Automatic annotation (TrEMBL):
Protein name: Nitroreductase
Assigned GO CC terms: plasma membrane
Species of provenance: Streptomyces katrae
InterPro entries, A to Z: F420H2_quin_Rdtase (IPR004378), Split_barrel_FMN-bd (IPR012349)
Gene3D superfamilies for the chain: Electron Transport, Fmn-binding Protein, Chain A
Catalytic activity, reaction form: oxidized coenzyme F420-(gamma-L-Glu)(n) + a quinol + H(+) = reduced coenzyme F420-(gamma-L-Glu)(n) + a quinone
Any one GO MF annotation of this record: coenzyme F420 binding
Stored Pfam families: F420H2_quin_red (PF04075)
Family affiliation: Belongs to the F420H(2)-dependent quinone reductase family.
UniProt lineage: Bacteria, Bacillati, Actinomycetota, Actinomycetes, Kitasatosporales
Length: 129
């Protein structure tokens, strides 16, 4: 994916904004092979924590990066020029409700993707470094 190549090759000075919204690069370990997999994701922030949504374009199944982090919650994150190890977890129902509006404010398509994915609930993920 060109966005990821640009983000990585520039050291994060280019690619942080994608279609006008902030994106991070999340690296997880593939649950089957153990290979590192990098995924660009729209993110929000709250009190030093990063927030992402496992939308998977609104399909019937969770995206593979989400299944990977559930299996291996130790992740690596790049936000702009900063890269660091972190820990990821699924938000509990109250956290999801609290942060959902902020995430749809950043990327309104999350609401459409949630409607398409129903009855699958799109997980909101909290990443702490």
């Amino acid at each position: 994916m060109e966005h990821v190549r640009t983000y990585v090759s520039s050291g994060g000075t280019d690619g942080h904004l994608w279609h006008g919204v902030p994106t991070l690069l999340l690296t997880t370990l593939d649950r089957a092979s153990g290979r590192a997999v990098r995924t660009p994701l729209v993110y929000g922030r709250d009190a030093g924590r990063l927030l992402v949504v496992a939308a998977g374009t609104g399909g019937p199944h969770h995206p593979s990066w989400y299944a990977n982090l559930v299996a291996h919650p130790e992740v690596r994150v790049q936000v702009g020029t900063a890269a660091f190890p972190a820990w990821a977890r699924t938000a509990d129902p109250l956290e999801r409700e609290t942060y959902w509006e902020a995430m749809t404010g950043l990327w309104p398509l999350f609401d459409d993707q949630q409607a398409t994915a129903w009855p699958r609930e799109l997980p909101l993920v909290i990443i702490e470094g």
